[in-house]
Amino acid sequence: MKLWKVIGMAAFAGVAASGVVVARNQRRRAAYTPDQIRERLHQRLAEASAPRPE
Hints:
The protein is mostly helical. The protein has helices at 2-30, 34-49. It is 83% helix and 0% strand.
């Protein structure tokens, strides 16, 4: 029965760690102004639609 407790605690720690990573990424994204986001999206679109040399 102790093995299941250890597995459960490891799963809980993994979920908590994932939540920390998601929160950190969300804060970084929230730091952008709408103009910065728009500029980055336009840049990515231009890169994606540019013809690739063969």
